[in-house]
Every structure is written in structure tokens, then in C-alpha cells.
Amino acid sequence: LGPVDLDYYLLIGPTIPEVVAAFTKLTGRPLLGPRWTLGYLGSCMTIADQPNATELHRGFIQEAQHHRIPCSGFHLSSGYTLDAEGRRCVFTWNKTTYPDPKAFFQLFQEHNMHVLPNVKPWLLVDHPKYGALREAGGLLRGEDGQVVVELFWLGGAGTSGLGSYIDFTSKTGYEWWVAQVKEQLVAHGATGIWNDNNEFETSDLTAAAGGFGDPLPAGTCRPLLTLAMARASWEALRGPAGARGPRPRPVVVTRSAGPGMQRY
């Protein structure tokens, strides 16, 4: 991988609160989230995979009300993106189980619940938009300049399929992600995003990220890719500057994190 710089920071307290304050002064202050994030946020891995998913979601809402369990939101697992072959294709909708995404979000909104859809930072080679993003330069590439293709989880136990990581440190990859979150999720009613499977593990040691114009080894900048993914989701949720009324407070849930993640 070649030589890399390593900077050390020594944070002097002497108390733990003072050390934390110094750390966040260096890496960024925590984002102030909306009040609803302090409530119960439901989750279920299997509901979105079922052929009667919409009915099960409705049943969850009814059960919460029946048992008087206050619920502020629901983590929507990735089953809503299943294609006909059972592959999870991010930013697509399974129209068999979720025929009307906007009506689905409205179902929860009518009961004062928010929905946080699951998204994954890769495209399977069978994804309808894989070819276009590959040609535009939005995927991680290897030493030979070719897009790195690896195995990714499809959904079932022991299932995998070929795909490529999105390069969030490339202008193309970053802007593509922001646009997809807006068009496929926010436009339907999503008020939060669940960034999942975002460790950016790659078996290709020559893989390189765009590095915002200064290419970096993908293996050593994995935390940066995770951070940029969070910022991209945050930007999409935040809405345009100058819009009428207060800008919404974005909510980004992330499986992986590094220093600075608290800003988003």
C-alpha cells in the first residue's frame, strides 16, 4: 500500500467530560436530532421479506396501539428492495409487496410514526443502474483501473452475488447517492435513513477510492467512505437551502462509524 501518514492527538482532561468536549471540538459536535428519535423505534428483520409485508406492517401498528406502546418510528429492513430473483437492489422497490411506496409511508405517518429505510453501499452487477454508474466512474476501482467486483450478501443464509462498492469519495458516486435517496425514499415520505453494511471491506488490496480528487487506498480509508456515506444520506434528507419553512433535522442511523460520524 506504500507509506501513509499517521497523526497522533493527545487530549488532556483531566476529567472525562473535558476529554469528550475536546474530542468533539476536534472531530465535530454531535448533531441535534428531532424529538421523535428519543422514542421507541420498532424493527423487524423478516416483515419486509414476506409476501404480505404491507399487511404485517399494518398489524405492527395495530398491535402497538392495542398494547398502548408509544412508537415513534420503524426501521424498514432491506426486504422492500427484493427483485423477482430474491436479490436486494438498493433504491428499487418490490412492487409486488410494496405497490405504492408513498401510501406505505402515509400509513405510518397517519399514526405519527416515521420510517427509516435500510440502504446498502453497493450495487449488484444485476442492478438496473449498475452499468451507468460503473461507466460514470462512481464505483471503487482496482490498480488496473477496472471496477472491483466482489461477493455481497443477497439476503438468505449463505447466499451471495457479485457487485461493487459505491465510491463515496468520488463526485459521481456521492452525488448519485444523494439523488437516489431523494428520488426513491425522501420523495415518498422517508424522514430518516438506515445506512447498513457500511464497513467497506474489500478483498482487493489494490482497490482505490477517488479521495475527492486525491486517490487513496480503499483499505486505509474505509472510515472515510463510511463517513462520506453518512454525509450523503444526511444531505439528501436535509433538503435544499433557502426552502420555505424550517429545514428538517435529518436522522441517519448507521451500522458502522468512525470519528466525526456524530456530525451526521
Question: How is this structure best described in words?
Answer:
There is one protein chain. This protein has 264 residues and is an alpha/beta fold. It contains six helices and ten strands. It has helices at residues 16-27, 53-66, 101-109, 130-136, 171-184, 222-238, and strands at residues 41-43, 73-76, 114-119, 122-124, 150-153, 160-165, 193-195, 208-209, 216-217, 252-254. The strands form three sheets. The protein has a five-stranded parallel beta sheet, with helices on one face. Strands 4-6-5 form a three-stranded antiparallel beta sheet, with no helix packed on it. α5 (171-184) packs across α6 (222-238). It is globular, with a radius of gyration of 20 Å. The two termini are 30 Å apart. The mean pLDDT is 93.
Fraction of residues in β-strands: 5-15%
First-to-last CA distance: 30 Å
Task: Output the structural class.
Answer: alpha/beta
H/E element order: HEHEHEEHEEHEEEHE
Strand order of the largest sheet: 1-2-3-7-10
Main attributes of the structure:
14% strand; 264 residues; alpha/beta
In short:
The protein has 264 residues and is an alpha/beta fold. Helices cover 28% and strands 14% of the residues. The mean pLDDT is 93.
Secondary-structure blueprint:
Elements: H1 16-27, E1 41-43, H2 53-66, E2 73-76, H3 101-109, E3 114-119, E4 122-124, H4 130-136, E5 150-153, E6 160-165, H5 171-184, E7 193-195, E8 208-209, E9 216-217, H6 222-238, E10 252-254
Parallel strand pairs: 1-2, 2-3, 3-7, 7-10
Antiparallel strand pairs: 4-6, 5-6, 8-9
Helix pairs in contact: 5-6
